[in-house]
Amino acid sequence: MLGGSIASALPLSLVRGGDDVTVVRVRGNDAIKRHLANLGFVEGAGVHVVTSGGGNIIVLVKGARLGLDAKVAAHVLTA
User: Residues in domain Ferrous iron transporter FeoA-like (predicted)?
Assistant: First the structure.
């Protein structure tokens, strides 16, 4: 496991702007998991949080800048 156990993982929606994290797991139904995987949120992927707040989060993942709703970002567990 990267960076600790899943029990200590933090949802991406709670990561502060400016922080770098690693995806440890993606939760949700198959459609959500597939959608997030297509965006680059796979186990081991590095994510830089550009800004977080107001119910939205802007991240850099695999060279792409993406905006996510906090409800969707909550499905991505990070360490």
Answer: 10-79
